Amino acid sequence: MKLPKRKFIQLFFALLANANIGFLWQKALYRGPFKGICFPGLNCYSCPAASFACPLGTLQQALASLRLLGSQAVAALAYVAGSLVLFGLFLGRIVCGWICPFGLLQELLYKIKTQKFACPRVLFAVKYFLLVFFVILLPALLVSKTGYGKVWFCRLICPAGTFEAGLLNLALRPELAALVKSLFYWKVALLLTILTLCVFYFRFFCKVLCPLGLIYGLFNKVGLFKLKWHEKACLDCDICEKVCPMGLKIPEELNSVECIRCLNCLKGCPAKVIELEFSLILTERFDSRKSIGKKKI
Predict the structure, then answer these.
(1) Which of 27, 80, 208, 220 has the fewest Cβ atoms within 10 Å of its own Cβ atom?
(2) Which residues lie in coiled coils (predicted)?
(3) Which domains, and CATH codes, for the chain?
(4) Measuring CA to CA, which residue among 23, 18, 15, 17 is closest to residue 172?
């Protein structure tokens, strides 16, 4: 069966996530029944075109309101946590490679013809820090006198929110310019920096800064879809590594946290030794001792 073109699928989901064309004349957020459903990818709730909620923003909102709303916040937290677990188990980082609108934007920017660079892997650890502190701990622990916290990642970092909500709302309603403060200029500067880096580094935001991709990546080894390498038929040509846009070592990192399931390795392999399997079985940890003389480590 021929694999579908990934860009068309990415575009489809980007349009699905932002299907509220009524914003063009209503100039207001969509608040219908779909807005209570979390879209798998990073897509800002406050975007006028957004039809769904963002799981990362919803998670922060639930944590920020735990002390103030009590059981209601716990119910919201259970819902978004359950959504993330389901997305993770059923899709893993397929969400990143095929569904996330901001992922598509990054890939389109990378197509701009210029010199390209490999992102230092030491920077990949930054997203762990952002997930633990800006997404989980600060919203839950740093609260005001009213007992309500803030959505710190959305407030200070998220480029999707700045692009989809901040700039678009300002374009639709110029009167909002009177409310702009220094924080907005910081967010715009950070957005421009990230988008510029995405021209030179493939999916810079995904690799370094995205907590949502990290959450899904943690399910790559235990989810229903996993990549499998057939060692005996391998030609040791290294084409799989050459076509991997995330710069992963294959087969060691086929199901690592960083794999976005773009399937370039599967499609590029001349011997077809890599396949996408549907299984509940935990993937075996790759043991380099089994492949001495067969695959470079």
Answers:
(1) 27
(2) none
(3) 6-217 (no CATH), 225-291 (3.30.70.3270)
(4) 23
